[in-house]
Amino acid sequence: MTALRPFHLAFPVHDLEAARTFYGQVLACPQGREDSHWIDYDFFGHQIVAHLDESQAASAAINNAVDGDAVPVPHFGVVLTVEQFADLRTRLEANADTRWVIKPRVRFAGEVGEQHTMFLLDPSGNALEFKAFADDSQLFAH
Hints:
By secondary structure, this protein is α+β, with helices and mostly antiparallel strands. It has two helices and ten strands; from the N terminus they run βαββββββαβββ.
């Protein structure tokens, strides 16, 4: 099996300085290169790029029901270890500016795919999900 390679995601933000604070300080993602219209971040080993789009307007929310929650679509995120999830959860819960969509909880409790999950919005309204499995073999289980 080949080693997992990092993914790359470019996404719009309406305020680069707000994105810098959120991704760099709140989420503690190391910053990479930047220009006047974009900033690279190391998003838990993956490359994300916040691209300035000053015309970005909020779109109507689309949600899908998942285990009793209204999950925002689209969203992006990362699967963390349980320890990383707990650390991030603590940091986000201590931040009064965290814009929760779904507060931290256990989804599919006692079922295949049981996982810790939480959803929040960045300052531009992009939805992010962070999740963790006690057993990583459950990630793609049926």
